[in-house]
From TrEMBL:
GO process terms (BP): chorismate metabolic process; L-phenylalanine biosynthetic process
Domain of life: Bacteria
Sections of the chain in a coiled coil: 6-33
GO molecular function: chorismate mutase activity; prephenate dehydratase activity
Gene3D superfamilies: 3.30.70.260, Chorismate mutase, Periplasmic binding protein-like II
Name assigned to this protein: Bifunctional chorismate mutase/prephenate dehydratase
Site (Essential for prephenate dehydratase activity): T259
Organism phylogeny: Bacteria, Pseudomonadati, Campylobacterota, Epsilonproteobacteria, Campylobacterales
GO CC annotations on file: cytoplasm
Keyword Lyase: yes
Species of the source: Halarcobacter ebronensis
Entries under InterPro entries matching the protein: ACT-like_dom_sf, ACT_dom, Chor_mutase/pphenate_deHydtase, Chorismate_II_sf, CM_dom_sf, CM_II_prokaryot, G/b/e-P-prot_chorismate_mutase, Preph_deHydtase
Bilayer-crossing regions: none
Enzymatic reactions: prephenate + H(+) = 3-phenylpyruvate + CO2 + H2O; chorismate = prephenate
Amino acid sequence: MSEEGLKELRNKLDSIDNELLKLLNERMELVHQVGVLKAQSGGAIYRPDREKAIIDRLDSLNKGKLNRKAIEALFLEIFAVSRTFELPENVAYLGPEGSFTHQAAETRFGAMSSYISIGSIKGVFREVSTKKARFGVIPIENSSNGIVSDTISCLSNYNLKIIAEVILDIHHTLATTCDKVSDIKRIYSKDIAFDQCHNFLENFGLDEVEHIPVESTTKAAKFALNEPNSAAICSHVGAKMYNLPILFENIEDKDNNKTRFFIISDFENASSGNDKTSILAKLPNTPGALVDFLTSFNKAGINLTKIKSHIVEGISIFFIDFDGHKDDENVKKIFEKHKNSIKFLGSYVKEIDDI
Ligand SMILES: C=C(O[C@@H]1C=C(C(=O)O)C=C[C@H]1O)C(=O)O
């Protein structure tokens, strides 16, 4: 391509960017006004249902090169920045900076929100309950390791609502300052990350070296950086944070290793037309109680997508997900019929991905 041709195209791009900047600033002005109205009425800033409606509309109008994924990526970032102009809201998440939960939070709250790192799931619930943070982000389940008990217990004990789910592909790296695998004498990581990389460790003889479980994979990267002959199983982001060289990428056993996270807050979403609802069911310890309960869903034509039993403080409860919104007529009837058994946890936009 000629220098002239390149210059001309770049000039055109510059004027489009100028236009985009002007429009984005106009958008931020309007968003700020929405923020003022919400502040008067106490309304929540983050409305995943409204954001989904905007993306659906843009996707159906779209005639250009961008596909839905690209529209989503661009606009979710615009929404995240917009929200900080309405009113900066704190987001509490589990783990140190760079944790997978932090990464999940950033997919919804973008780079400009103010984040609070919290060391425990209970701590995240407490932070949101006491209104130090408007949102909390915690893991609920992983495709290899199953449900996160602490999250279920907290959903049972606190009166907060699930307002969104985020599903993230989980990839691990082996990061180390060692040049050769044979120099590695100990590996730091989170217990569940060791489990998820079992085959890799065995194949490289790294099941024989010392495995040291630590609180988070980010901490593992920090330890591995400061100690000779050590390595960390951590995320790409974790390794980059500490400038720890990555020796192997994607070392997880399953190539579809996913974690599902919940965003919790103190409000309930309106229906978006494509929702999922989560509940806890405490059923009487009598024969047929579970069958009777589940039959109601079947009769109402409600699609159950998940059911997990769990013990909280000695009592058996069921964590259940189904398609639909709390305000749907058939869901309302079930909630009425089983009101003594059900704790409503939230209705939220259903992600396309599932685990
Ligand atoms: C502006 C609003 O607040 C937030 C920001 C949105 C946006 O940038 O368009 C959409 C929904 C909310 O998460 C709104 O509720 O309309």
